[in-house]
């Protein structure tokens, strides 16, 4: 008896998750840059949560390697 094939995500689902992760990462990086260069406030836990949630979604959808979402 052969094991069932793993379910592969739809390409558009992975692409959407990847795009959301990239957008969240870019927004977080901008907040960090503003903090470093303009003396602004350091990003809050809520700022990081958006990126963490997007990274988790990307991992779930595509079982992406760790470095792809960092």
Query: What fraction strand?
Result: under 5%
| Separation of the first and last Cα atoms | 39 Å
Rounded average pLDDT: 81
**Count of β-strands:** 0
CA-based shape = elongated
Q: Strand pairing plus helix content: what structural class?
A: mainly alpha
Helical coverage, percent range: 55-70%
Rounded to an integer in angstroms, the radius of gyration calculated over CA atoms is 16 Å
Number of domains: 1
String of helices and strands: HH
- List low-pLDDT spans: none
How many DSSP helices?
2
Main β sheet profile? none
Structure description:
The protein is built from two helices and no strands. With 70 residues, the chain is an all-alpha fold. It has one domain (11-69). The model has no long low-confidence stretch (mean pLDDT 81).
